[in-house]
């Protein structure tokens, strides 16, 4: 046993410097890999949340809107991508469900202010507003029509639509990066923002809801050729 | 008895990723971050208590003087899972979730080895910054109006923040208790 022990101590003493050097190298490798992984997942420290990540991605690489069928408050069917391409307008898109009592109300009144501003500044031909319902089960054309009345929607500026095929809901939400989670009392909680879609039906920018003036400023900047 | 706890802990921790228990971590950030993740770490820790002989000799031992390499690896794993978007990904994708389970168990394994083989100064350094980071994250969760994970409500984020603060406090107190106990002090002289 004594012999064994001294051998052990011996090998320990000899390997100390080697251990130190190899530990240094291994640690350096761990730091390099670790920093690289964190750098990559946060897109160079720009995005720490799913929300900022999807915004950065869209800005770097605009995303074409799929040919999804929607219905407006009058019951008319339209294909979403063709709808965006059918005018020279830049569309500001938001996602709602008409039963909503929380964040969509804020979004709704925000849209009302936008509508007023667009009218005042005569931007009807340049900027449009589109609210898409992600609750096709409850939001039929009648419900949309109620919503339109409640927010005094001017159809020349602001359109409300719901999905024609409720099964396409997942596709629509994925496409725009919306995550909807059920909340108590039949409500939903979801990430809310303004999505800018141009007349090539490409989603080009996503911004937080903010004052109407600033949203219009963003939209007009995007419209410059 | 240790084997019993290891198995129980492992089954509960990993089981939370499978249906029907998965609903808990899909709906509540608290179950995900304040229950599943610590249990996964604990599973790795208990596993190491039984089988850490694997790290005591050979190459790993040479590369891990004073547990430094292990400490850095564990820090990066923990930092990775403190980024809100990785939490969302683990909820959405089973692949990421499997990676989460493996990395947390691995991290717990490394940490047990680190605490068993390093001196108090290095441990204090590690705990000093990682508990401060954890506590800071908890306070941020409680105070911010931003919903950091698209998968979870603000309410469950606040609850998680409180739990994270408590957990970081408990870890700190347990470490102090262990390192300042008579046995530990006797051992170090």
What secondary-structure arrangement, pairings included, does this model have?
The complex is a heterodimer of chains A (225) and B (189).
Chain A: H1 2-41, H2 50-60, E1 63-64, E2 69-72, E3 77-79, H3 80-85, E4 90-96, H4 103-120, E5 127-133, H5 141-150, E6 158-163, H6 169-176, E7 180-183, E8 187-190, E9 194-197, E10 202-207, H7 212-223
Parallel strand pairs in A: 4-5, 5-6
Antiparallel strand pairs in A: 1-10, 2-3, 2-6, 4-9, 7-8, 9-10
Chain B: H1 2-15, H2 22-27, H3 29-51, H4 53-56, H5 58-63, H6 68-80, H7 84-92, H8 94-117, H9 120-143, H10 154-179, H11 182-188
Helix content of chain A: 40-55%
Poorly predicted parts of chain B: none
**Largest sheet strand order of chain A:** 1-10-9-4-5-6-2-3
Biggest protein-protein contact in the assembly: A-B, 28 and 29 residues
Number of helices of chain A: 7
Quaternary form: heterodimer
Beta-strand level of the residues of chain A, as a percent range? 15-25%
Could you tell me the radius of gyration of chain A in angstroms?
27 Å
Secondary-structure element order of chain B, as H and E?
Answer: HHHHHHHHHHH
Question: Please, could you describe this protein's structure?
Answer:
- The complex is a heterodimer of chains A (225) and B (189).
- Chain A is α+β, with helices and mostly antiparallel strands and 225 residues long.
- Chain A has helices at 2-41, 50-60, 80-85, 103-120, 141-150, 169-176, 212-223, and strands at 63-64, 69-72, 77-79, 90-96, 127-133, 158-163, 180-183, 187-190, 194-197, 202-207.
- In chain A, the strands form two sheets. Chain A has an eight-stranded mixed sheet with strand order 1-10-9-4-5-6-2-3, with helices on both faces. In chain A, strands 7-8 form a two-stranded antiparallel sheet.
- Chain A is elongated and about 80 Å long.
- The N and C termini of chain A lie far apart (85 Å).
- Mean pLDDT of chain A is 85; it is low at 1-8.
- Chain B contains eleven helices and no strands.
- The model of chain B has no long low-confidence stretch (mean pLDDT 91).
- Classes of the chains: A alpha+beta (225), B mainly alpha (189).
- Chain A binds chain B through residues 15, 18-20, 22-23, 25-27, 30-31, 33-34, 37-38, 41-42, 47-51, 53, 179, 181, 183, 189, 191, and chain B through 27, 61-66, 68-69, 72-73, 75-76, 79-80, 83-86, 88-89, 146-153.
């Amino acid at each position: 046993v004594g012999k064994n022990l001294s051998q052990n101590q011996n090998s320990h003493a000899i390997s100390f410097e080697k251990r130190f050097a190899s530990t240094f190298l291994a640690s350096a490798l761990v730091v390099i890999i670790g920093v690289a992984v964190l750098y990559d997942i946060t897109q160079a420290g720009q995005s720490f949340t799913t929300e900022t990540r999807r915004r950065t991605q869209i800005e770097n690489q605009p995303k074409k809107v799929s040919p999804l069928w929607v219905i407006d408050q009058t019951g008319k069917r339209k294909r979403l991508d063709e709808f965006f391409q059918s005018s020279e307008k830049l569309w500001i898109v938001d996602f709602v469900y008409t039963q909503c009592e929380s964040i969509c109300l804020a979004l709704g009144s925000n849209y009302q202010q936008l509508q007023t501003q667009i009218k005042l500044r005569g931007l009807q031909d340049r900027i449009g507003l589109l609210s898409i319902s992600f609750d096709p089960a409850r939001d039929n054309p009648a419900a949309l029509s109620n919503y339109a009345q409640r927010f005094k929607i001017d159809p020349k500026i602001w359109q409300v639509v719901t999905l024609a095929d409720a099964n396409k809901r997942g596709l629509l939400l994925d496409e725009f990066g919306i995550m909807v989670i059920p909340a108590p009392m039949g409500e939903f909680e979801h990430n809310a923002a303004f999505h800018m879609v141009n007349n090539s039906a490409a989603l080009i920018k996503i911004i937080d809801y903010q004052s109407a003036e600033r949203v219009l400023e963003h939209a007009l900047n995007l419209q410059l050729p | 008895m240790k084997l019993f706890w290891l198995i129980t802990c492992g089954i509960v921790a990993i089981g939370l990723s499978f249906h029907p228990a998965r609903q808990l971590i899909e709906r509540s950030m608290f179950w995900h971050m304040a229950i599943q993740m610590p249990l996964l770490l604990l599973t790795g820790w208990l596993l190491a208590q039984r089988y850490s002989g694997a790290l005591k000799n050979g190459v790993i031992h040479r590369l891990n003087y004073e547990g430094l390499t292990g400490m850095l690896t564990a820090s990066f794993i923990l930092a990775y899972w403190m980024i809100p978007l990785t939490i969302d990904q683990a909820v959405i994708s089973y692949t990421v979730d499997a990676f989460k389970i493996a990395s947390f168990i691995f991290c717990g394994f490394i940490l047990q080895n680190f605490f068993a083989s390093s001196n108090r100064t290095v441990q204090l350094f590690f705990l000093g910054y990682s508990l401060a980071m954890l506590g800071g994250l908890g306070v941020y969760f409680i105070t911010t109006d931003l919903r950091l994970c698209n998968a979870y409500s603000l309410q469950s984020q606040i609850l998680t923040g409180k739990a994270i603060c408590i957990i970081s406090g408990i870890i700190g107190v347990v470490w102090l208790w262990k390192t300042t106990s008579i046995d530990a002090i006797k051992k170090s002289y």
